[in-house]
Amino acid sequence: MQPSFPIRIECPPGACTCERESLLSQPGADLRILMLTREEEKKLIERLERISSLGDLEHMLQRIEQQLGVTIQIAPGSNEVRTMRGIQIDMPDIPGLCRKTRQSLPAAIRKGMERTPEIAWALLDAHDLFGMPGI
Q1: pLDDT band at 69 (very low <50, low <70, confident <90, very high)
Q2: How far apart are CA 58 and CA 27, in angstroms?
Q3: Which DSSP symbol is given to 84?
Q4: Which stretches within 79-116 are classed as H helix?
Q5: How far apart are CA 124 and CA 114, in angstroms?
């Protein structure tokens, strides 16, 4: 069954593990992730690279979850955070989510945080890493 909205074209055989065809063949499957066409993905990446605050980032993550059904979790890593690489960005491995998209979205978020380091500081502060120890 083909959805009524434009969907992402399939990846070349062997290039991806998105399981797009099996998702399309399942009756009642959540096909929202397939709405992320390559053009829409480019727009999303550009928007994530231009995030301006932690609130803006949280808003974008909420919109991604609402519109695509993908939950992205961002938190400081378990070790010391010295660079943006120390911030952990987790995306689920869901059917229909292209392997390249799983790499490009976290990279765009990191790039946005590198452009505006206040976002990373606010994220660290929100996780109480800058909090003073109790007396």
Answers
A1: very high
A2: 32
A3: G
A4: 99-115
A5: 14
Contacts of 65 (CB under 8 A, 6+ apart): 71, 72
Q: Which among 65, 31, 97 has a CA at the least distance from the CA of 74?
A: 65
What does the DSSP 8-state code read for residue 13?
T
Amino acid at 69: G
For residues 34 and 65, give the distance between their C-alpha atoms in angstroms, rounded to a whole number: 13
What percentage of the chain carries pLDDT values higher than 90?
37
CA angle at residue 100 from 67 to 102, to 5 degrees?
A: 50
Task: Please state at what angle helix 54-68 crosses helix 117-126, rounded to 10 degrees.
Answer: 80
Q: Which residue has the tokens 């009524």?
A: 4
Give the pLDDT confidence score for residue 85 in this predicted structure.
66
Place of tokens 């990373």: 120
* pTM, entire model: 0.83
